[in-house]
Design goal:
The chain is elongated and about 70 Å long. It has 355 residues and is of the alpha/beta class. Strand 3, helix 4 and strand 4 form a beta-alpha-beta unit. The strands form 3 sheets. Strands 4-3-2-5-6-9-7 form a 7-stranded mixed beta sheet, sandwiched between helices. A 3-stranded antiparallel beta sheet has the order 10-11-12, with no helix packed on it. The protein contains 14 helices and 12 strands. Helix 2 crosses helix 3 and helix 8 crosses helix 12. The protein folds into 2 domains: 223 residues, 3-Layer(aba) Sandwich (Rossmann fold); 71 residues, Helicase, Ruva Protein, domain 3 (Orthogonal Bundle). 35% of the residues lie in helices and 16% in strands. Its main location: mitochondrion. This is rRNA adenine N(6)-methyltransferase. InterPro entries: KsgA/Erm, rRNA_Ade_diMease-like_C, rRNA_Ade_Mease_Trfase_CS, rRNA_Ade_methylase_Trfase_N, SAM-dependent_MTases_sf.
């Protein structure tokens, strides 16, 4: 789509005297070639409804319309940028809606149009992601990229929030290249970690492009990757986010230790050895297996087994927490039993016996 002549994002920053602020961790992408490349990484957005997070002065926003986006909802935290964004909104006949807010607290489904939310998609169809009428996209501050993706990941795992309408909504965002590398890393790679496992269980994760930090204003100190996450039709393993997150946190907390050592931290001290042996046995893992060698599926199965072990009823003798505090016995059941005091008796003298 060809837009009417509008000032460039760089011109708008100069006109409205809008320097990037450190407190918002702002690094604007202004070069039209760079913004066009970023939007191209999102794939086909023609006639799509795009939710853009952190539009800044509108450089990427303008490219969204030039690539055929039907409507854009732009969520911006910095109110100073609204006059610049309003200039673009006027040029596209108000197909750009502006919202002031922090994306970490923002209810995205509230900005989705009724004509999309009332026509529910089929999550498990092959075309669900490519035909999704919604796309999430943004050049995010580095400090909120992972918290926001974790929030969306939890919503995908429960099919809630904007993912509750049956569409496998693609996500295209910027983040530090090193962090993106951890998300897409495969088994046996040095960058493999917790993020690799939890994201790959629910998403197809791909790095689409890497920008030099010099492409941003002000320049970023690191290279910046454009990563795309597309929800899978079905997770690699059906497991709750909380269980998988807990198991992977424990496993990668000490990366160089063996599974037989690290997994013990998941269990209570009284049953730790037995539960750890059972966990590894049922998962068909040896105690000297290194966590870096496991696939996302293997971690998923490990989390399933862990959930089964901790959810089953325990014999009463295993529930007792054998702590003795002087005259008290304290139990996990919340009851405290006090030892009866010994009855003190006076020692009889020889005279008493004679009597």
């Amino acid at each position: 789509m060809v837009l009417p002549p509008t000032p460039s994002a760089a011109d708008l920053l100069r006109t409205y005297k809008l320097p990037a602020l450190r407190r918002f961790a702002q690094n604007f992408l202004l070069d039209p070639r760079a913004t066009s490349k970023f939007v191209a990484c999102a794939g086909n957005i023609e006639n799509k409804f795009v939710v853009e997070v952190g539009p800044g002065p509108g450089g990427i926003t303008k490219q969204l319309f030039e690539h055929g986006a039907a409507r854009v909802a732009a969520i911006e935290k910095d109110i100073r940028l609204f006059p610049a964004l309003q200039t673009l909104s006027n040029a596209v006949d108000s197909r750009l809606r502006l919202y002031l807010g922090d994306i970490l607290d923002f209810n995205i489904e509230s900005v989705l149009p009724d004509d999309i939310t009332t026509q529910r998609g089929s999550w498990e169809s092959d075309e669900s992601s490519s035909c999704s009428p919604i796309h999430l996209l943004g050049n995010l501050p580095f400090n909120i990229a992972i918290p926001l993706l974790i929030r969306w990941l939890k919503q995908v795992s429960t099919r809630s929030g904007p993912f509750s309408f049956g569409y496998r909504i693609p996500i295209t965002i910027c983040m530090q290249e090193a962090v993106a590398g951890r998300i897409v890393s495969d088994a046996l790679m040095d960058q493999r970690g917790r993020l690799s496992i939890i994201f790959q269980n629910w998403f197809d994760c791909r790095v689409k492009h890497v920008f030099s930090g010099r492409a941003f204003v002000p320049a970023a100190n690191v290279n910046v990757a454009v990563i795309q996450l597309i929800p899978l039709k079905r997770p690699l393993v059906e497991v709750s986010y909380d269980l998988l997150d807990k198991v992977t946190r424990v496993a990668f907390h000490t990366r160089n230790k063996k599974m037989g050592t690290t997994m013990g931290a998941l269990f209570q001290e009284e049953t730790r050895d037995d539960d750890t042996r059972e966990l590894l046995h049922r998962a068909h893992l040896k105690s000297d297996t290194m966590c870096l060698t496991l696939t996302a599926e293997e971690f998923g199965h490990l989390a399933q087994i862990y959930g089964d072990i901790i959810s089953r009823p325990r014999p009463i003798h295993e529930q007792l927490d054998r702590k003795i505090n002087q005259n008290e016995l304290t139990f996990e059941l919340g009851e405290t039993y006090v030892r009866p005091e010994k009855i003190k008796t006076k020692k009889k003298s020889k005279k008493d016996w004679d009597e």
